[in-house]
Fold this sequence. Notes:
Layout: E1 11-14, H1 23-41, H2 45-62, H3 68-80, H4 84-97, H5 111-120, E2 124-129, H6 134-140, E3 146-149, H7 163-172, E4 179-183, H8 186-194, E5 200-203, E6 212-213, H9 222-229
Parallel strand pairs: 1-2, 1-4, 2-3, 4-5, 5-6
Helix pairs in contact: 2-3, 2-4, 3-4, 5-9
Amino acid sequence: MTEVAWSKVRLVVFDLDGTLYDQPPLRRAMALELVKHSLLRCSLRTVETLRAYRQIRELLGQVQGDDFTNEQFRLTARRCGCSEGEVRALVEEWIERRPLAHLPRYKARGIDSLFSALRATGRRIAVWSDYPVNAKLAALGLKADYVIWSGDHGVGRLKPDPTGLLALLEEAGVTAEETLVIGDRADRDAAGAAAIGVPALIRSSHSSGDTMFRRFDDPPFAPILAEARHV
């Protein structure tokens, strides 16, 4: 497993979804809520609309446009035969608001200790996400020095486009060599980091590799956790 050059790292940039919390159990919990919702209404409209929305966002990440924040709703509405307002309302309720109540239960083990160790040793913390950050961070009880998401003004690009990451580096006043990205998708987080020469670690329970880890107390983090104990 690749060793992190912690002596060089001044900024650690975390992805949020699937990185700071365990995504599979959250998705199962939300799927159960959707099943109950659909049975009560005798309709799969919400399920089908949200599925289309997620598929379209994946496609927009591969073919970057200049206005993804509106395109994602426009294309979903066209595919599902509904209004853009309906799509926006469903996304706000089911992707942004309802999951917040579940997040504390699925918070990644060891992330509190790692955040504390980074701060104790003088490193700064950032979050770079394709979705809004602040409400989820608050639900997880975590704080970052810098946050940015793909819909922020001046970004307007989904991962793996590195525009958001570049903005974080500029705001923090650090170089690519002084930065580490930690995410859960090699095709999004690691690819975006690699595009500007930033090293990355990928959290995965199914894969193994030089840049993969499962838990936040795995070997790549041992040096920083040990350093914090001696501060």
